[in-house]
Amino acid sequence: MIARGLDPAPIVDHIVELAREQRAAVREVSRSELDAAARTEAPQGVVAVADPLPEVGVADLVQAPAAGSTAGRDGGRAGTPFLLALDGITDPGNFGAVLRTAECAGVTGVVLPGHRSARITPTVAKAAAGAVEHLQFAVVPGIPSALRTLSKHDVWTVGLDAAGPRPLHELDLASEAVALVLGSEGRGLSRLVAQRCDVLASIPLRGMLGSLNVAAAAAVACFEISRRR
């Protein structure tokens, strides 16, 4: 849907061209109709209606990344899963930023809890800037049981914890299938999730504050793992 009366803009022309190449219907609507259809603020005159994101099982995430995924680009390792498990992130802005970082760092799949966590809403999708279209998602009843499943599939689980005994940059992550586990804002990893991780690692801090925002911590950790792989 394109808002009627938009000022000429090359990006809008490009969107229309891409849509027609994909045989997606394009129609002009009033601004009020477009705003009513949008689920985020400031849709900028364009709204697309898409199918729901597919969900997969945790075991499916362990399989070799699908053709066309980001695995194997700079910092990735084709055929070796690099997963992210999120233990209760509730802020949509943080969640979207984490997903955007994850996709850019070569993460191949994300494990999400079904309860007490942000879900993939339009606000999250917008903050993720397209990353939700390139990641696989497994929604699980609980992260502890998902970590047990990953361990059975020889995936090394690394919990990020401010009090973790091992600095993240000292871990050997050259060839292992790995899942980085991030806790929620404020409380971090839950006790049971921390117990289920194979190792707890920390990001060394040099300032007076004791922790990073979860989105910032995700950026540091994802790219450190990507670098070492």
Notes on the structure:
The chain has 229 residues and is α/β, with parallel strands linked by helices. The protein folds into two domains: 2-37, no CATH class; 58-228, Alpha/beta knot (3-Layer(aba) Sandwich). It has helices at residues 10-21, 31-37, 58-61, 92-105, 122-128, 143-152, 191-196, 214-228, and strands spanning 2-3, 28-29, 82-87, 109-113, 136-140, 156-160, 166-167, 178-183, 199-202. The strands form two sheets. Strands 5-4-3-8-6-9-7 form a seven-stranded parallel β-sheet, with helices on both faces. Strand 1 (2-3), helix 1 and strand 2 form a beta-alpha-beta unit. The protein is elongated and about 60 Å long. The N and C termini lie far apart (42 Å).
Major pleated sheet: 7 strands, parallel
Query: Overall 3D geometry?
Result: elongated
Number of strands: 9
Question: Would you tell me the structural class of the helices and strands?
Answer: alpha/beta
Order of helices and strands: EHEHHEHEHEHEEEHEH
Q: Total helix count?
A: 8
Please tell me how large the radius of gyration is: 19 Å
**Helix content bin:** 25-40%
Indicate the low-confidence ranges by residue numbers.
66-77
Q: Tell me the CATH topology of the largest domain.
A: Alpha/beta knot
